Amino acid sequence: MTLPVETFFLRPDAQGTLQQQIQQMIAQGILSGRFRQGEKLPSTRKLAQHLGVSRITVTIAYTELLANEYLFAKGRSGYFVSENAPAPPDFEPAAENDDAVDWGRAIGQRFSGGATPSKPQDWAQYRFPFIYGQADPTLFDHANWRLCALQALGQRDFTALTTDYYDQDDPRLIEFIARHTLPRRGISARPSQILITLGAQNALWLTTQVLLTQRRRAVLEDPCYHALRDILSQSRCHVTPVRVDQDGLPPDAIPPETDVIFTTPSHQCPTNATMPMDRRRALLDRARETDALIVEDDYEFEMSFLKPPSPALKSMDADGRVIYVGSFSKSLFPGLRLGYLVGSEPFIREARALRASVLRHPPGHIQRTAAYFLSLGYYDAQIRRMGAALHERRVVMEQAMTDHGLQVSGRGYYGGSSFWMRAPETVDTDHLARKLQSKGVLIEPGRAFFAGDLRPTNYYRLAYSSIPTSRISEGVAMVAKEIAASA
Amino acid sequence: MTLPVETFFLRPDAQGTLQQQIQQMIAQGILSGRFRQGEKLPSTRKLAQHLGVSRITVTIAYTELLANEYLFAKGRSGYFVSENAPAPPDFEPAAENDDAVDWGRAIGQRFSGGATPSKPQDWAQYRFPFIYGQADPTLFDHANWRLCALQALGQRDFTALTTDYYDQDDPRLIEFIARHTLPRRGISARPSQILITLGAQNALWLTTQVLLTQRRRAVLEDPCYHALRDILSQSRCHVTPVRVDQDGLPPDAIPPETDVIFTTPSHQCPTNATMPMDRRRALLDRARETDALIVEDDYEFEMSFLKPPSPALKSMDADGRVIYVGSFSKSLFPGLRLGYLVGSEPFIREARALRASVLRHPPGHIQRTAAYFLSLGYYDAQIRRMGAALHERRVVMEQAMTDHGLQVSGRGYYGGSSFWMRAPETVDTDHLARKLQSKGVLIEPGRAFFAGDLRPTNYYRLAYSSIPTSRISEGVAMVAKEIAASA
């Protein structure tokens, strides 16, 4: 490619003659790795014109660089970065100067160093990825997603693609969610009670900002989704973790002063527990007693391939007390970043205003593509396909875990994509995971899901949403072997 | 029973091909429980006749639904709703209830009611849209954007499309910005100093959260981008508005206790003033004196079609004191929601962690599409095309404004897409805008750009980024006429 003339600047404060400055500018471009071998430089005429210097000045500078073998000339076709030019260091070029800023003081609020563990970006390179929440290329309906995306890129959809919705969303996506997605969870909602978010993460974050302050009190399931704990600790509200049992969150353990209760009733994260109907009623009663709100993360309800899912807690909500969080990222792909909030207008109004201030709205093209994928029935077809595949993998997982004597702590009656596992007390699963990773096996240590200082260290999660059936039993065997060695 | 053909109809406002509309109509009928398992669909001939479409269209739609298991075919006797079709919910959606929640108490923080004015969503329906910051379908390179999006949807890019980047970005987009976009502004930055954001709005919001608290002090240009004022007031920091002059922000008016200075040096928003080189040096010196940081919103630098733009303030920053905000939304389309932050690592680290907590990362597909559009040179070509068109419109605007005696307050030496206008003192431009809107003319009242209680009411913005050249002078005449009537 030709290096665009616009990337050449004479610094107002630069030293030396114009010719030297030009030489230096190009040499630095090459040394810093910005200009690469074989790339074409602007013609002397163009560069001279752009910099407002005489053409001869540029010609002399180029000639100098030829002599130093930074450049080479190809007859009439011009000047190129030479392969003999000094190679840029393969480490990142050093900053031009050291900061004079005291960042320790300058930063008003810190957000780094949360509990959310980082997962290997190259998880797909591992042979036994028992990893959670990544898209399996073999299950995703790539072809039809592509068709829908293309259609959403068409001239007829130009407005949906390009317009600034300000604080609004794509009406077609909202309508589909209201008429088809929510009714399947027993929820009826008006468009004004629905807000599209950048995934469930964004929905939970917006909800926390609107409902919680430093003076307010939240109840979290323990264990729970670790990113949610980070969101709440950043909000500086008082957090009470409540240990879940085999039926999920126990209502009578919720303190009287609670303002907001975060729960995953249909499918507890990470234990996979499903809250029975009578406990759901008790939970709603408890919330009414303490005048608390409930934030329901209805996560993975689509993955109910063993039994139809129970209706959402929100469907039993007579008070408008439940705020519902849904997501398409799990069942489509996480990079999609598309979820939604359902709640009473006064709440949605504030969440919408905050979203507008933070990011305006999720990109229109993505909303429209999802609207097509959903309304053309591809989404349901994909869910069925995924369900069938997950069902098959689950059967193989259970057999393998029985064969190798692994202990399942939570399995989920309706389906799901993972098992919550318990190793012997003496096993530290952080350590276990590192050892397994070095052998090509990815598991998720359970520690990060728990609250407090005395967290259990012997739990872990085994997901089967990304591992091929054929590798499951060999992978499970390796986990069992490693546990036996560590115990 | 056979579903009566009369219950099928194509919505007049429906989008997509006829085949997709039919597919969608049937899929939704099944999902909403209107069509039950085993029910017979009308024959392709009957339905085609009824809808007035070709029979093959209906046949293809039915075939697609067969593939997705919504329908099954019984030899000669036709198509039926399949028992494998997704079942509608068997539980009744909850009835609407009045909220028992006291939302006045339940909401911890309010975000609604900001200063940002809402613009008509249907602006494109107006004959004279002197509206700012919307995409002009005649200028946007839709075809090549579509090609790049298609490429980014390909199998080779599956990971870029679907992966959960956690807190990271698409390395290809980052690399392009580092090597090609920033150098054009005289800035050299490492990948670790760049963060992709959901538009400049999101960049400014993240920056505010990281740098400002209730105890810290910010300086804002007055007038300025109104959404920025909302962001700062939500952060509850102390804000000092500093009135700009014809050269932009005057450094000596910045109070000594300032922590963060927000400025638009290359192209002041909304007055279009460009800060001269000596004032930029003075501003950097002033920031050093007061140990303040500078947030540079380098807005519309691509729209410099009269003269090449001056290098960014960040290019003169020896201290790491300047945080740079760039955006692709203005020059591509606002619905894209794609911008970036450039700053020292300690700052970017915190902004990245906050972004991860708020929304994880901007959708991968959009980052990759932009990376292609930029690296294939389509972006530069589009900027040139836009520049030429804006140049032409600007000439016509200036002629018309002279002819009709409109007073320009700020015009921008380098180009841009709008004029900052001053009406006679006696004219209230809020009122003026409403009257003009009823006549098909959209202008932006200036009031919302100013701070404080005694805001000037006689300023307004006339943008030419969305109005066809042919309508400019008639539109300007109407503005002049209305002003004369109001004065």
TrEMBL record, chains A, B:
Q: Does the keyword DNA-binding apply?
A: yes
Q: Which SUPFAM superfamilies has this protein been placed in? A: PLP-dependent transferases, Winged helix' DNA-binding domain
How far does the signal peptide extend, from start to end residue? none
Provide this UniProt record's keywords sorted from A to Z.
DNA-binding, Pyridoxal phosphate, Transcription, Transcription regulation
Is Acetylation among the key words of this record? no
The record's listing under InterPro entries reads:
Aminotransferase_I/II_large (IPR004839), HTH_trans_reg/aminotransferase (IPR051446), PyrdxlP-dep_Trfase (IPR015424), PyrdxlP-dep_Trfase_major (IPR015421), Tscrpt_reg_HTH_GntR (IPR000524), WH-like_DNA-bd_sf (IPR036388), WH_DNA-bd_sf (IPR036390)
User: What Gene Ontology molecular function terms does this protein carry?
Assistant: DNA binding; DNA-binding transcription factor activity; pyridoxal phosphate binding
Which PROSITE patterns is this protein grouped with? Answer: HTH_GNTR
The HTH gntR-type domain covers: 16-84
Return the PANTHER family for the record.
Answer: HTH-TYPE TRANSCRIPTIONAL REGULATORY PROTEIN GABR
Task: Say which family it is in.
Answer: In the C-terminal section; belongs to the class-I pyridoxal-phosphate-dependent aminotransferase family.
What name is this protein filed under? Transcriptional regulator, GntR family
Please name the source species.
Sulfitobacter brevis
